[in-house]
């Protein structure tokens, strides 16, 4: 192609030479590109740029947000009143467009932990559209409940709609606001005495302060399970250091890989050993 654009006859000697040089250049470029892609930060930059550009394109084209599109997709494809089908549709939507919803391996681990623990009173920090909330709510025993907090009002509205669509209004309460503010009113406004299970998945620098606030408000009991996502990437090192070293917690890590980046990620699963 390049040869003909240069107006050189491909069959001629000069044509062959130009063609060979182009091929060499192409191979060099490919080599350089794959070398760059091996460098973690470049790969990270590439993946994030791709996600942002594809989201921007969709947002301008459809003139709505990722969460609006996800909600419409779930309502169109899932069965109303069936949490499993809502979860499957949210997951399927992730194949079309990246969202912040919990990745499949971690969802399975959450299923397992909650099923074994049979917690009645659960609290989540960082609801997003409710994938992890619906996951937890699907596993808790009858009569149990989950209070979840989402900081962005529009996203909290989508989560409420999805919870309603899944038929879980009686089980899940979505609070709009910060986890910190919610913790302060859990006892007075939501009649929580002690929490059996806590899922931590909001902004990483708030993990530790909010955990300490739960301790201070005496909302943890001996045996409360605290599951925290994104331990290694993006990472909450101060939180991990605390739950892995403070004798008030017994912690194990669940290691897996991030889907897009193929980098190691982990969840911390801690059991509170402190006083009630
Ligand atoms: C990683 S997403 C949560 C994903 C969700 N747990 C799931 O698996 O489907 C993090 C969410 O936490 C919310 N968030 C960030 N900081 C927060 C805070 N301080 N309090 C409550 N929500 C917060 C963000 O708006 C975002 O929707």
UniProtKB/TrEMBL annotation:
This is catechol O-methyltransferase. It is an enzyme of class 2 (transferase). Its EC number is 2.1.1.6. One of its GO terms (biological process) is catecholamine catabolic process. PANTHER family: CATECHOL O-METHYLTRANSFERASE 1-RELATED. Belongs to the class I-like SAM-binding methyltransferase superfamily. Cation-dependent O-methyltransferase family. It comes from Patiria miniata (Bat star). InterPro entries: SAM-dependent_MTases_sf (IPR029063), SAM_O-MeTrfase (IPR002935). Keywords: Catecholamine metabolism, Methyltransferase, Neurotransmitter degradation, S-adenosyl-L-methionine, Transferase. One of its GO terms (molecular function) is catechol O-methyltransferase activity.
